[in-house]
């Protein structure tokens, strides 16, 4: 009778893990047996996410600072020896305004977090995934339905999420020789703080100038979709997933 070889726990890095989708994904991965590095700017919120779990590593990190990002991945590798999954989730909504109404500083801040921060994290993850044994891994980028259809007065955020789609496809293409896959999840109207920012629960601005209360769905349901992507075998990749609240104005928006 052959002996069963025990499965090695997988290692994941989750950015923006202190709240919202990042918190829900981090907790679900921990519950599913992953070892998880929790990254975010506020240590207290990361500790709340971790809830004292023995396989959670809390690493305060600003994804726009290259040294912070390098320290995050070095700490993860030092603790567990590898990185199997990166959930690139840290992001901000940025300024509300049309292209002629926002400042260059607001634009730069939004792209620094949503695009450059994701690039820096992906770069560190790819370096480790190329060098580890067995080689390879998976990167999941959190886009948005704004990568498909913008809300009014959201030019900086919308452009950043279109850029995320380009980042996803480039990583997937360039990672092929090394067993590194990349996919993107575009989520619409989870019940998180950012929905309060744009007034989804009280009346979000629509393309025709009206305001409409839009449906939302639990963040835990979005986390399950991320888990599905993370759990795909190395022989398969989910390149793109769109998950929205049922009935929200996305298809036929405006």
UniProtKB/TrEMBL annotation:
The keyword Oxidoreductase applies. Gene3D superfamilies: NAD(P)-binding Rossmann-like Domain (3.40.50.720). Keywords: Oxidoreductase. Coiled coil: none annotated. InterPro entries: KR_dom, NAD(P)-bd_dom_sf, SDR_fam. PANTHER family: 5-KETO-D-GLUCONATE 5-REDUCTASE, BLR5618 PROTEIN. This is SDR family oxidoreductase. It comes from Arthrobacter methylotrophus. The lineage of its organism: Bacteria, Bacillati, Actinomycetota, Actinomycetes, Micrococcales.
